[in-house]
Amino acid sequence: MMKFRFRRQGTDPQREKIKQELFAFNKTVEHGFPHQPSALAFDPRLQLMAIGTKSGAIKIYGAPGVEFTGLHKDITAVTQIHFLPGQGRLLSLLDDNTIHLWELVVGPPREVGGTKKEGGVCLKQVDSYTLPGRPGIESCSATRVTVLFLLKSCDLLCIGTEGGGVYVVELPRLVLKENQTLLQDQVTQSLPDDYRCGKSLGPVESLQEHPQQPGKILIGYSRGLVVLWDLSARHADQLFLGKQQLESLVWERSGGLFVSSHNDGGYAVWPVTSGNTITHQPVSSTIPYGPFPCKAINKILWRTSQTGSPVLLYSGGMPRASYGDRHCLTIQQDKEHVTLDFTSRVIDFFTIHNLEPDKEFDDPLALVVLLEEELVVIDLQTPGWPTLPTPYLAPLHSSAITCSCHISSVPPKLWERLINAGRAQRTRQQTHMSWPICGGKNLAPPPKQQELLLTGHEDGTVRFWDASGVALTPLYKLGTANCFHTDCDEPHDSSNDHDLQQEDEWPPFRKVGCFDPYSDDPRLGIQKISLCKYSNKLVVAGTAGQVIVLALNDEPSDHSVDVSVVDLLQDREGFTWKGHDRLEPRLKPAPFPPGFQPQVLVQCMPPASVTAVTLHTEWNVIAFGTSHGFGLFDYHRRNTVLARCTLHPNDSLAMEGPLSRVKSLKKSLRQSFRRIRKSRVSGKKRALPTPTSKVHEANAALAEQEEVAPVQRRIEPRSADDSLSGVVRCLCFADTFLRDGTHHGPTLWAGTNSGSVYAYALEVPGVGSGRAFERGGASESSACVEALLGKEIQLMHRAPVVSISVLDGRGKPLPHPYEASQDLAIAPDMTNAHSVLIASEEQLKVFSLPKVSAKTKFKLTAHEGCRVRKVALVLFSSAAQEDYSEHTLVCLTNLGDMHLFTIPGLRPQVRYDCIRKEDISGIASCLFTKNGQGFYLISPSEYERFSLSAKVLTEPLCSVQLDRPLHPTATSDGTSMHPQANGTHRKMAGRAEGQTEEPPCSLSSPIQETPLDSPLSCADLTLDTTGELTVEDVRDFLTTVDEAENNLRNMKEEEGRSTGILIN
Amino acid sequence: SLFHHRTTFFLPLIIDFGMLDFAFEAEYRRFGLKKNGYVGFQEFYQLLQSIHHIHGVDVLLEYADIHGDLLPINNDENFQKAFASANPVLRIIVTIKGLVLTGLRTGGSGSIHSKNKSSLMIGPPQNFRQISSIIDVDILPESHRRVRLHKYGSNKPLGFYIRDGVSIRVTPQGVEKVPGVFISRLVKSGLAESTGLLAVNDEILEVNGIDVAGKSLDQVTDMMVANSHNLIVTVKPANQRNNVVPRGSKNSMGHSGSVGSGGSIGSALSHDSQSPASHSNPITASSSIAEGDSYEEDDDGDVILENDCLPTYRSHPGTNSNSSTLNRDSPHQGQHSSIPQSVSMPNSLAAALSHSSTMMSHHNGGSAHSVGSSQESMKEDGNVITL
Predict the structure, then answer these.
(1) Which long-range contacts (CB under 8 A, 24 or more apart) does A60-63 make?
(2) Is B228 in Cβ contact with A715 (below 8 Å)?
(3) Does the beta carbon of B335 lie under 8 angstroms from any beta carbon of chain A?
(4) What do you get for the CA distance between the two ends of chain A, in Å?
(5) Contacts of B201 in chain A (CB under 8 A)
(6) Model pTM greater than 0.90?
(7) Dist. CA A762–CA B7, nearest whole Å
(8) Residue of A nearest to B168 (CA)
(9) B76-85 and B41-51 helices cross at what angle (nearest 10)?
(10) Prior bond of A815 cis (ω within 30°)
(11) Do A865 and B220 count as a contact with CB atoms less than 8 A apart?
């Protein structure tokens, strides 16, 4: 009772000030590749590249570390972006036919943790414009914008429309110059009758300004007509009577000719000679991949070069029947011809070339191709046109991310070795070109420490990323597939054959890019990662129960990997594993490149997905858990110390692997598809904008809900025999007091899905007070690690145990292996009583040790109605006081909010909204760093980086040298928008809530807040490429209503399964 | 003058014999029975009388069920139930009829008892376990009802479902529809249905003192599940005709049902309501629930099983029990179930007992021998068993 009052009070001003200095929530930067890119632009003067996305975001990239992000008010696809070169301004065209003007401006200074910070440069929308409809013409498609084109002078914008009109708008004020408008009938008048033949010219497909004569633009119409139009004289200089449906136009540098690309897969070269008003035929017309029908060439570029023939670059044009499904871009120069074969759709591309007017040639330097899933840059100066590795926009999802792990303060030695190992992997690329997009200046101070982000992927690889700064760059890639025999084992040295093959092949394909969503064998998928940065030992565990211990080696090695099989069922009767088989280990010696090389493979049986793994390098042991039990393995002596089955006798689901097909699943799938269909219909209804009061909206939604059978939830306590109750959720090693209060020693803790905690006392030879000398001369080598069950705790509420960590005598988390012994951390307090913090989905609880009795607790679910998904112990440093820091428990719930608690007191500190609660994969992928930052996936390809710390922030801080002052210009309508500093995904109000405040309740919510578990919401979820979510995860959506009711609680628990919890 | 016997059975082994606990003036015996030996209540009753040498004395038999609640044994049916729940220990308390254990139950007169004696043997109200009650009648609006469901000890499911719905509120602006959470279904013969205090379409306003306004169906579900062992829901009943009217000091209605004797429902007066200071203020009312001991009833119900054979560092290796070395030799077997264990009982005896019996049966499996052979495994210190 007293405790409760104390919590409610919570308004001690002194404490509030400290809290402000410690905690602050910010979404700082997005790592990875923007999801669903839809537009690309380049500013050759500022050397900045812009990418627009289908969700209305604009991201600008320059030199590594230079990033600006803007977000349109409406979530509408950005269809085009155009820079106003050198001005730091850009225009965007959205799918809803609106044009927006953006500017780089200096943001307002911010206050973080009591200290003022200079506002960085950020991207801000300053104006928007919609083309007025033509009087008398109702159809809005006539004024639908098809092309935006900026004149080189940057003061005029030409807008081509669906109706064939060309409008001119003054910049930067965005005012229509009505007298300049060119409607189609004006053009048709001057056409010869036989060409006109009464048909419309179609939409404007392309607008290009004459490279030498400003004010003259080429207008290309869909039907094939190209007009050279003099804007000032307002008459057609020349007409080119093309007969093929037009796709794009490009000028040659001199202005003597232009090239058109067409729907039939061909391109044509047209001469531009003054005096000749009507040209009937091009000088040449080619269908490069003919003669059979080809797909359209969507875009063509023609770049002259000093070395001779021009470089021709075009996308598409593939033979329809045989390669119609390929995503290709062709580079051609003389006899050199390469067909770049991408794994995803080409969105747009540009070349970086010489723009100086006094230079005679374009001399293209590089080709930048934006694909749906990655960015590819080709070095056009090096023979063979090799690809250039990108320093940012890394395709994180080249194979779906299945788990992740963060290592802070990486020792320099390990860092260097990783970089070397990574460099060795990239030797085949010979390009020495430096990154060509290098605009802006990164003002962020160099990172104080190196940070590693490890991502586990569905194809069995672990990728190491440099996460120290704003740009997430790849360091090293580790493959685990070579430990096993897989179906797709192919001879390694096929590269020579490959080249031979290519010579015969037409078109001359070259595979480019690394996005490869198709996994060879889903069992290879990585589920858990644990790395010891001091001993350079790594443990990765996968979908088929494989646990691999690896060690870092700078030399290549040829060796065989020891295999140990651990039976976690322990002769438990009545269970037959119906899931996938184990992977077949490779028993013969195999070559392993420099880097992490496997030493031991521990195979769990049954080969269910590994759900928890932990490593203690000082004791040379690993612990691992699956849905059946957990095991302890001494990798030094290659000895299984312990295997413990955690299955409940009634648990039947545990025996179905994620890949098994059960009869009932088919039925439920059918049901769920029906439901999805239904929900799509109702979803559209909801999308209609209703600008009425919130209550009205809620009422409408509720009325709609009443029509459908309501979703029901069963209220029942968790029982012991809930299925999947045996899933091991967390494992933890600790040197603490389990036997008695005076002697500490190694312990292993395991927590399960049904609220059971097992604590084992370990005997590790040479470790533990007193034990070593007692054994005396006993031969150390023969001594084995031993484990004895010390305690079993059954949490009464039976909620899944999310994390276990031991706190020392001062209530601080125990240091990592080697940290204390190598003086890298303050030695733990072993004189006062330790305690263990057990976080279940429903409660946080601290128990005393060695006698396990509850000291403090916080019932999160009972109070807030939310359940714990992720938990981490984080060290927060004060932004104001140099030497002040606090260990804090950070807790992410199923509603996507962060709760911060003191330890060991478990007093709530602040609460932040962070992730949308519908974003299951976002919540499931969230991980925390040791110093108060975190990451979560906002799309299959992007990590959002956030910070809970007022002191530790990794955010873009950059400047750009512009011709104009960097201060915002007065906008035409005076409505200044919020500077959208960061976050292409709509920010939830980054509002901090003290515990004293009541959570907000709004009536607007029921529409958006369709319960996540409700089958109605599954249509909106993008679960496809996040490999982390398995059938089990979405079974909520797949089951019938009745089944859903029954399974609900279990399945909910399942959602949260996965990814590394940073408590070790 | 207070005199009662306490008997512990071990099934199927005879283990230990009595001790006299002077502090409680109680006799304490322990003996074993064949599980299929006694089929009838009368037979068993006579056996007890003979064991305790109390022939001709009318006694009340009560047993501690798996949840630690005292339940009567007075007919064949509940005797069978009691027997079935022995796993492996059945604790029986033998009290002389007419004598009441102070501190255990209050009030109660023999009148009901004697009335029923002629027909079916139904115990007095104090022998029934409370499974639900209406509380805080005096501080809630008449249209609302605060119902407490004690899931504890009942093997019945809570047995209800909730759904989203529309609630009609009268506001200064007129009638407004707002989202609400409602009871959508009651499971037949579930706890919720058998109390008769909750009904389909009742609107749920609070869960254990926390307002559910603005919370999603899933949040409310989670809150209820988290509180399911001692669930207090404030509802606005769909049927407003049976509302409880506050009447002076007797402002709480109780509902009791004996689970052991087949779900017969009686009604009894329950405990007094809480702080009278908190009239008409729902927030204090809710916090009073939250702070009250009732709310903390499930506190620390976690069960901790300790392995007593963990060798302490100072202890001589030779004194370590055999089982630990045995385990060391066979790490691959991993199952350390054969280690004698003691059960530490947290504050709530009820919960501990419930789990200890299940846990012990679970872990010991068929290896009752090891339990039997170890003296220390059955430590029952006085502060734990304080009936």
Answers:
(1) A60/A90, A60/A104, A60/A123, A61/A392, A61/A393, A61/A437, A62/A437, A62/A438, A62/A439, A62/A440, A62/A958, A62/A960, A63/A435, A63/A437, A63/A438, A63/A439, A63/A440, A63/A441, A63/A442
(2) yes
(3) yes
(4) 33
(5) none
(6) no
(7) 40
(8) A699
(9) 70
(10) no
(11) yes
On the question of a cis peptide bond just before residue A172, with omega within 30 degrees of 0, the verdict is yes
Put simply, whether B246 touches A (Cβ < 8 Å) is: no
Sheet arrangement for strand A166-170: A145-150, A156-161, A166-170, A175-176
For B352, name the nearest residue in chain A, comparing CA atoms only: A796
Tell if the CB–CB gap between A643 and B332 is shorter than 8 Å. yes
Burial B83-118 (b: 16+ CB within 10 A, else e): bebbebbbbbbbbbeeebbeeeeeeeeeebbeeeee
Return the C-alpha torsion angle A394, A399, A404, A409, nearest 10: -40
Cis peptide before A850 (omega within 30 of 0): yes
Domain A728-764+784-959 in CATH 2.40.128.630? The answer is: yes
All residues at 6 or more sequence positions from B105 whose CB lies less than 8 Å from its CB, including other chains:
B126, B127
β A621-625/A267-271 pair status: unpaired
Q: What is the pLDDT of residues A736-790, one digit of tens each?
A: 999 888 889 999 999 999 999 999 999 998 875 444 444 444 445 567 899 999 9
Query: What is the per-residue pLDDT across A483-524, written as a single tens digit (0 to 9) for each?
Result: 998 765 554 444 444 444 455 678 899 998 888 877 778 899
The answer to whether B214 contacts chain A (CB < 8 Å) is yes
What token pair was written down for A741? 């209060």
Spatial contact of A885 and A875, defined as CB atoms under 8 Å apart: yes
H or E, element range at A901: strand A897-902
B280 token code pair: 């008409």
**B311 to A739: CB separation less than 8 angstroms, yes or no:** yes
A60, A952 Cβ separation under 8 angstroms: no
Q: Give, in order, the Cα–Cα distances in Å from B265 to each of A301, A598, B110, B255.
A: 87, 67, 18, 8
CB contact (8 A) between residue B162 and residue A1045: no
* Domains detected in chain B: 1-99 (3.10.20.90), 132-242 (2.30.42.10)
| Residues of chain A contacting residue B221, judged by C-beta atoms under 8 Å apart | 713-715, 1048
Look up the ipTM and state it.
Answer: 0.76
The answer to whether residues A155 and A171 touch, using CB atoms and an 8 Å cutoff, is yes
Cα A1058 to chain centroid, rounded = 16
Take residue B180 and report the two structure tokens written for it: 């609400």
Both structure tokens of A79:
């269809």
Containing A499, the helix (H) or strand (E) segment is helix A495-504
At A1036 the pLDDT is 38
- For an interface test with A, give the residue of B167, B221, B230, B325 to mutate (most A CBs within 10 A): B221
Domains in chain A: boundaries:
395-485+506-618+640-645, 728-764+784-959
